[in-house]
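User: For a teaching handout, I'd like to show students what a predicted protein-ligand complex looks like in token form. I'll give you the sequence and the SMILES for adenosine-5'-triphosphate. Please answer with just the structure.
Assistant: Understood, here is the input followed by the structure.
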Amino acid sequence: MIDPALMTTAELRQALPLVTARDLRVAYDGGPNVLDGVDLDLFPGEMVALLGSSGSGKSTLMRSLTGFAPVSGGQVRVAGHDVTNLRRGELRTLRSEVGQVFQQFNLIPRMSVLTNVLTGALHSAGPINVAYGFTSAHRKRALELLDRVGIAHKAKDPARSLSGGQQQRVAIARALMQQPKLILADEPVASLDPKLADSVLELLREIAVQDGIPVLVSLHVLPLALTHTDRIVGLRHGEMIVSGRTVDLDAAKLAPLYSDDVDHADGFEGYTASEEVTPNVHASA
Ligand SMILES: Nc1ncnc2c1ncn2[C@@H]1O[C@H](COP(=O)(O)OP(=O)(O)OP(=O)(O)O)[C@@H](O)[C@H]1O
């Protein structure tokens, strides 16, 4: 290991996790733990897949990182915030620092693409008039981000007129508008065909690397996780039973995540990491 005293500030920043969860437990309404002793580190610049069958706790884990889950034990730190013990007003700051991308894009359909991206600024700017309250600097930045995600030419179009892949790019630009320290993407490609899914995940990975932030992405399609991420963590019944570098993992090593999931179990038969698409696995997305 390199002596920390010899590292530059930038190197130190890369080496420190932006997110740490230790022995994290979550229980809804006094029920059983749906997350049970989860440990997680997320480092700047890496794209990490979160896998697990339906109900294993993927969304709950993401919600725990933004203070939306009823944590019953353990610790969570995100970008310097102690999420389980936030000071007054700190929750808003935390949420403004975490960009979120969802399966259904969550755009305002009748508003323009540009306005949708601008709404990303509301997290830090507070309640301002959506139509007239943005500064020219906001608009300039939103247009730059649309250019970055490849759809600046659609800026004036209503969001509803865009394809699914384009809408997800708008949602990513909106998340970037927050200048996030972390991006959480909850099944961001589950509504897209495989080719668009590849391109959206490539974009997210590029952002992780170029902006030096962690991107945590939950996925249902194993080949996508094996192709597009640096690390994979996997939940089963709320416990993290897989955690490793993607290059060290394959479908066989990930199979225990889905051992009681009939759809995925079928999808593993004859699957190797080099196959681009496993129909049964895709069918369940
Ligand atoms: N608001 C809630 N109230 C009570 N139980 C909940 C709530 N949200 C989730 N759960 C339960 O917590 C467990 C984990 O759910 P979660 O949505 O985190 O799983 P998931 O892995 O994201 O599933 P999926 O892949 O289907 O989205 C499930 O048993 C679910 O029923």
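For the handout, you might add this sentence: The CA atoms of residues 202 and 228 lie 7 Å apart.
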